[in-house]
Design goal:
Helix content: 40-55%
Structural class: mainly alpha
Strand order of the largest sheet: 1-2
Shape: globular
Order of helices and strands: EHHHHHE
Largest sheet: 2 strands, antiparallel
Radius of gyration: 13 Å
CATH superfamily: lambda repressor-like DNA-binding domains
Strand content: 5-15%
CATH topology: 434 Repressor (Amino-terminal Domain)
Number of domains: 1
CATH architecture: Orthogonal Bundle
Low-confidence stretches: none
Number of helices: 5
Length: 79
């Protein structure tokens, strides 16, 4: 049986770092991956976990792997 998502599970990301290294605005990145500026904003603040498709789009855009940009932490891990 699979474990349901625990309320303490989280996904950290490095979207901000990758965006800044490319000298992109939030709007420019949003346009490049097909989402709104607001989506990029809340993702960078850690308040939004992207769909798998969006995670792949971001990784592809930056020429990185998903695990370079996103890091999953189980709720029972030390923070």
């Amino acid at each position: 049986m699979s474990r349901m998502k625990d309320s303490n599970d989280r996904i950290d990301n490095k979207v901000y770092e990758y965006r800044v290294l490319r000298h992109l605005s939030q709007s420019e990145l949003a346009d490049a991956v097909g989402v709104s500026k607001q989506t990029i904003l809340v993702m960078e603040k850690g308040n939004y976990s992207p769909s798998l498709i969006l995670a792949f789009r971001l990784a592809d855009y930056f020429g990185a792997s998903i695990t370079d940009i996103f890091n999953y932490h189980k709720g029972d891990e030390e923070q």
